[in-house]
Each structure stands twice: as C-alpha cells, then as structure tokens.
Amino acid sequence: MNVRRRHISTVALTAVAALGFGTLTACSSDSAAAGDTGKFDVVASFYPMAFLAERIGGEHVHVTSLTQPGQEPHDLEISARQTAQLEEADAALYLKGLQPSVDEAIGQSPIATKIDAAELTALEEHGTEAGHGEEHGDGHEEEHGHEDEQAHEDEHGHDHDHEGGDPHIWLDPVKYAEVAEGVGKAFQKADPDHAADYRKNTATLVKDLEALDEKFRTGLANRTTDVFVTSHAAFGYLAERYGLTEEAISGLDPDTEPSGARVKELQKIAKDDGVTTVFYETLVSDKTAKTLAGDTGLKTDVLDPVEGITDHSRGEDYFQVMEANLTALRTALGAR
C-alpha cells in the first residue's frame, strides 16, 4: 500500500522531521520491495533508525534497511536497487551527517516523507578533543584533539566531517527518546489510519528508554574513575549524559588512524586516570585498540556503538546490547 498517495500534503509531512529504526528479524533488505507490501513502507538508513521504525510502526509497517547486518554504516554506498526502493517507499528515515551517500540519495529522491533524526534533537560537537586536558591542566589540551582535523577523509576518500555535529545520538537513551517521539508524530501524520497505534507504541518505547536511562544512572553512580578509552568517538553523548569522559583513539570516524602523539597521550591518560580497559567494537578492526592495550598493560573489552546487530553482538536488539555496554562500563570504571 503506497499510502503516500492518500496522505496529507507533502509540505505538512515534511514539516515534521522524524527518524526510525528496525530489528534484524522484522526489517527487510532483500525481500519484498518497498512500496509493494500492503503496509506503510519505510526505508531506514541503518539499524538504529530501523529499530525505531519497527518499534513505533509495529504491524502496520514494512521496514527496509539500506545498511546490511555487519556492514560498517559509515562506508555505505547506495546501489541502484536501493535508490529504486527509496522512490517506491512511503517514508525515508535517516540521520543526516552519518552516511553521505544516504543523504545524497534521499535528497534527490521524490519520496514525500523524508524524516531526519538530526532534526528531532539537538546535535552537539564531540570528538577526541572532548575537554579532557582542561581537567588535568598538564598540557593535554595542546596535544589533544587534532585527530579530527586530520581525519575528515577516510581511506576510501569519503569526506566525513560531520558538520552538523556528532551524529551518535542513539547512544544516549534520553536523546533517543526525543527522536522516538518525533518519529511517532511523523508516522501519525503520514499514516493517520493507524495514528492511535503509533501513539501507543511510541509511549511504550519512550518508557523503555527512560528505564534504560535510569539503569545507566544508578549503575554508574559509584565508580572509581570517570575516564574510558574507545576505538572511535561514538560515545560522546553517553559520556556527557552520565558524567563520564570518553577518550577515543580515532575521531568520529572509525576508519581514521591515530597519530603517534595521540597514542602517547592516551598512554599517559590511562596511567593518570586509572584506566583499566581499552574498548573496541564489533564492526571495525580491533587491531589498534589491542595494540594500545598491549603497550600499556591494559585489558580489552567490547563497547558496542549499536550501529548494527550481528552474530557477534552481545544481544539481539538495541536494549540488550546497551545493557551489555552498561555491564562492560561498570567493570571498567570500577562501579560498585
């Protein structure tokens, strides 16, 4: 059912910016084409967007994810088939600034309802420079944070400067809930026949996210250090929400390589702040993280940015993986 043709005006729809996300089990990438399913067809850019779309849309939506399970979303290049899917869908849900090829394809698509998660909550600037040196007063601020300036292009030649701010908003349950509310409103306007269900599903999801936020607040309340080291700067919002300091080996892009000065700085930070663990993630190489850990005598563990669910993920959906992240952080930060 291409409900697009029965909707209210395009102007009214696009005035509501929203985003969505789909579980791997309910979300489709290769089966029924968008626009030919008898449901409200949503094309989502990657897992966190698809997850929201599935939870809010429930039985009324068919979600197609542009990013395959296990694929690093930053590296996605839109295919001709995916471009065709966009043109046939009722709505596109994405996060502008994370996947340049998706931004371009959706911008050029005639699809009526374009839902941008970045417009549903305030984006902020995060990166390797996240203010850590100022706390120490030991010169870190002079060395710290130039990796992002040097690493706007990855090894594939893609420009990922994230001019709109840090896009990793889904890793903060509070911001994710704000996005969910916007998605719910957009779905209600785009498919008014099922507005009551979308409203109910949104309220349930927001309550679940509020409960997750409380778990993080209480779980991290009594800790011995605030500092954690990650492979790339995906956790700026989470760190800010719970009073932590993220020190990233790379910048906002996982493909960038740290400089020798940055590695030395991280070694000093680890020693000064009682860091016990270097975190890596499941969708990119763990080589640099494990090398740093080996050189400094630290442990390694997974802190998952939840950009996709695979067989290696510590859980089957967003909530399970986030709770596994909380367990890992509690151990690394000495929380009691």
Ranges where pLDDT stays below 50 over 5 or more residues in a row are: 2-33, 128-162
Percent range for β-strand residues: 5-15%
Give the overall shape.
globular
Structure summary, number of beta strands: 8
Which secondary-structure class do the elements indicate?
alpha/beta
Largest β sheet strand count, sense and barrel closure: 4 strands, parallel
Number of helices: 13
User: What is the ordering of alpha helices and beta strands?
Assistant: HEHEHEHEHHHHHEHEHEHEH
Nearest-integer average pLDDT = 81
Oligomer: single chain
Radius of gyration (Å): 20 Å
Helical residue percent band: 40-55%
Strand order of the largest sheet: 2-1-3-4
Distance between the termini: 52 Å
Topology overview:
Elements: H1 10-14, E1 40-44, H2 47-57, E2 61-65, H3 80-88, E3 91-94, H4 100-108, E4 113-116, H5 132-136, H6 140-143, H7 147-150, H8 173-190, H9 195-219, E5 227-230, H10 236-241, E6 245-248, H11 260-273, E7 277-280, H12 287-296, E8 299-302, H13 318-333
Parallel strand pairs: 1-2, 1-3, 3-4, 5-6, 5-7, 7-8
